[in-house]
Hints:
The chain is an alpha+beta fold. The chain has 2 domains: 5-52, no CATH class; 58-165, Chitinase A, domain 3 (Roll). The chain is built from 5 helices and 7 strands; from the N terminus they run E-E-E-H-H-E-H-H-E-H-E-E. Strand 2 (16-20) and strand 3 (26-27) form a beta hairpin. Helix 3 runs antiparallel to helix 4 (104-114). The longest helix has 15 residues, at 86-100. The protein is elongated. Mean pLDDT is 89; it is low at 50-54.
Amino acid sequence: MSSGWEIRMSNSKGIPYYFNATTKESSWDAPSELSDEQIKSLPGAHHLSSGSSGGVETITASHLLVKHKDSRRPSSWKEANITRTKEEAIEILRGYQAQFGDSREKFEELANLHSDCSSHSQKGNLGPFAKGQMQKPFEEAAFALQVGEFSDITSTDSGVHIILRTA
């Protein structure tokens, strides 16, 4: 019985993802309905071991980004011309921080509504990444977190972020 799932390699991230040819659904995470044995027998399963044999550690994280006028690209899906200062962006993030506390669900809801990153439509989920794929301050903050832990405000060339490590 075919589940429709296969494993493909992401051209942009260079890491494997799951794709269902029947439903056209794709996911960074393994489909929950499949056992480890079923996953190992999927078409493209060789992609799962190709990157990890070199000891490349990947983590998965979500973030909530607030850009400011000095950001690398001071525009987003919700604002064509961002004019706020970095200090104002930090204040906005502090407000979001107070709203979500330690709730992943509330964080994802706020990221979906307010993040200046295109990942807002995935509730801030950036998918898996390895060292060297993100800006250094973001990478250092994300890799320092335990799964389920939130970062404090982290500043990069893109703006200011709160990061949630999800895997």
